[in-house]
From TrEMBL, chain A:
Pfam families: Peripla_BP_5. InterPro entries: Peripla_BP_I. SUPFAM superfamilies: Periplasmic binding protein-like I. Gene3D superfamilies: 3.40.50.2300. It comes from the Bacteria. Signal peptide: none annotated. PANTHER family: ALIPHATIC AMIDASE EXPRESSION-REGULATING PROTEIN (PTHR47628:SF1), PTHR47628. This is N-acetylmuramoyl-L-alanine amidase.
TrEMBL record, chain B:
The lineage of its organism: Bacteria, Pseudomonadati, Pseudomonadota, Alphaproteobacteria, Rhodobacterales. It comes from the Bacteria. Residues 126-186 form the ANTAR domain. GO terms for molecular function: RNA binding. This is ANTAR domain-containing protein. It holds the Pfam family AmiR_N. It comes from Paenirhodobacter ferrireducens.
Length: 366, 202
């Protein structure tokens, strides 16, 4: 006999980042199916779904609607950091929990959010360490004009300067803008060793296509000598990018299609977004199983009481331990270039930046 | 020019929370531990080790002067006021106590990180201003000495401008400040004047 548990889903099925939403949603729904079909799990999830359609102002009210009109206490959802920050006050008021399966910029540890994808010590820092060792320390930083781009580039700027490198330019575009001419001209003029891409959606696709054309014109701007690096690019967006422009892109992430070692799963996923949403639902199912009253408990109570332990969730920060992979697009698919040791998310980098950059050369006392 | 503030690592910093046990303290502790700090709660006395703390959160509602083992406004670490009742008298007291930032109670899911950074920057800015002011005050106090020294040197037949230059060169040669050089000149003159050994002046 399975207990019915309503579970909120808050994903935009249209708008500039809908490919990522769909990947997360697919992961969550497939986990729900898997759990519902498994007789060993004593509960059955019933999705309660709302679609903000990419409208930032709809997230707060729709999240409130889920928590008010249904018995759901947990919501899987949000793609942008902006939308996550919009729903946190609602979660706090209603005692709800958001499960957030998307890479983000760190510097947050809400009591009402579980972060099941990577933060900078799991993506940006190892990626920069990798790039410093192979390409050089002169970078050009791009981003969409909101918190992800700002914070990722701020941290990158500090790490690059701290390593004696140089930031040759830092340029932002409004969300959805494809006005990438100036960035390309600045890159042409400054000849960096790598480009850090924190653009999202159509801006990113337009930028990648234009950069590919620059590389056809000038050999330096090809992936071998000056690749584009991303911390949030996964298979779920490759189809939106011109195949030739995608070739050679470098990305950091906890999973790429076909990789092994995803925590708690022997199966394959379409992308790390899908994998992170899938494991969010599974971790929740295990936290809710096996002790009475679990469905009414807050996240903090669940983490304290669940008989199976915290499911790999750090009770202090609500971040998770993840593998760290660097991959590069080769013939239309990500090929793993390097695998670093799995590590726990450290949102405030309280263990230091150096610890997260294994590839960076260090001075030794001899 | 935009001022770039380097957001330093707060990992392993130690914070004291001077507040009676309360859900607000729990919420604050949770936030601080997530940021990577170690936390000590105490009330109503601040233990002696607190002098080495990196941050001090203090209760404005029930706090009082005698809790702080230093003069008001001279804390050796950034102080963050925990304000419940926003009464003018209590806010005034927290400012006199030397708050560098504040956090409103009840403390919920956020606010600690920005309070830490703002308090630290305000504390550092106040430290460096205090050092500058002390230095300027010392120089101001020495102004009379400088005037006397220049007058004494000028009396040996130089113009005032030349005497001033000479004093500057003496300071450079002795590797002391301009004011210290003036003090030596005046002291040596006073010694010759009254015939007594007045080395204690110099």
């Amino acid at each position: 006999m399975k207990t019915q548990v309503e579970l909120g889903l808050l994903y935009s099925r249209s708008g500039s980042y809908s490919l990522i939403s769909e990947a997360c949603r697919t992961g969550a729904l497939s986990a729900i199916d898997h759990i519902n079909a498994d007789p060993a799990v004593p509960l059955r999830f019933v999705p309660v779904e709302r679609d903000p359609r990419g409208n930032i102002d709809a997230y707060g009210p729709l999240c409130e609607e889920i928590l008010r009109d249904s018995s759901a206490r947990h919501v899987i959802g949000c793609v942008t950091s902006w939308s996550r920050k919009e729903v946190i006050p609602t979660l706090e008021k209603a005692g709800g929990t958001l499960w957030y399966p998307v890479p983000y910029e760190g510097f947050e540890a809400s009591d009402h959010v579980v972060y099941t994808h990577a933060c900078p010590n799991q993506h940006l820092l190892p990626l920069l360490g990798w790039a410093f060792a192979r390409l050089g320390r002169r970078g050009y930083l791009t981003g969409s004009n909101y918190i992800w781009g700002w914070e990722m580039n701020r941290l990158a700027r500090e790490v690059i300067s701290g390593a004696g490198g140089e930031v040759l330019g830092e340029r932002y575009l409004p969300l959805g803008s494809v006005d990438i001419g100036r960035m390309i001209e600045e890159i042409r003029a400054t000849r960096p060793d790598f480009i850090l891409n924190n653009l999202i959606g159509p801006s990113q696709y337009a930028f990648l296509a234009a950069y590919r054309r620059l590389g056809e014109e000038i050999a330096h701007f090809r992936p071998e000598t000056c690749p584009i690096l991303s911390c949030n690019l996964t298979e779920c967006e490759l189809a939106a990018i011109e195949p030739a422009a995608a070739e050679g892109l470098v990305a950091a992430g906890p999973y790429f299609r076909g990789a092994t070692g995803w925590p708690g799963a022997q199966r394959s996923f379409g992308s790390s977004h899908e994998a992170a949403a899938w494991s969010a639902v599974h971790r929740l199912a295990r936290l809710l199983s096996g002790h009475a009253g679990a469905t009414r408990e807050s996240l903090a109570q669940l983490l304290a009481h669940a008989p199976g332990g915290t499911e790999g969730i750090d009770p202090a920060t609500h971040h998770t331990e993840l593998p760290v992979l660097i991959a590069q697009v080769e013939n239309g698919a990500f090929a793993i270039r390097e695998r670093f040791a799995a590590r726990m998310g450290d949102p405030y980098l309280s263990h230091g930046r150096e610890a997260a950059m294994p590839a960076a050369p260090r001075l030794k006392v001899v | 020019m935009k001022r770039k503030v380097r957001i330093a690592n707060l990992g392993s910093a130690r914070a004291y929370i001077l507040h009676r046990p309360h859900p607000t303290v729990q919420a604050l502790e949770r936030q601080l531990r997530a940021i990577g700090l170690t936390v000590v709660q105490c009330w109503p006395e601040l233990p002696a080790e607190a002098i080495a703390a990196d941050f001090l959160f203090f209760d404005v509602d029930q706090g009082f002067d005698e809790q702080f083992p230093w003069r008001p406004g001279e804390s050796p670490m950034p102080m963050i006021a925990l304000i419940g009742s926003e009464a003018p008298g209590r806010i005034e007291w927290s400012l006199e106590a030397g708050a560098h930032a504040q956090l409103l109670k009840p403390v919920g899911d956020g606010g600690a990180y920005s309070a830490l950074l703002i308090a630290r920057l305000a504390f550092e800015a106040r430290q460096s201003l205090s050092a500058q002011i002390a230095d300027l005050r010392r120089r101001l106090d020495e102004r009379q000495t400088v005037v006397r020294a220049v007058t004494l040197l000028a009396a040996r037949g130089k113009g005032e401008a030349a005497a001033y230059d000479q004093l500057r060169q003496m300071a450079m040669a002795w590797q002391v400040s301009f004011e210290d050089a003036a003090r030596r000149v005046v002291a040596s003159h006073d010694r010759q004047e009254d015939g007594n050994d007045r080395r204690d002046l110099g």
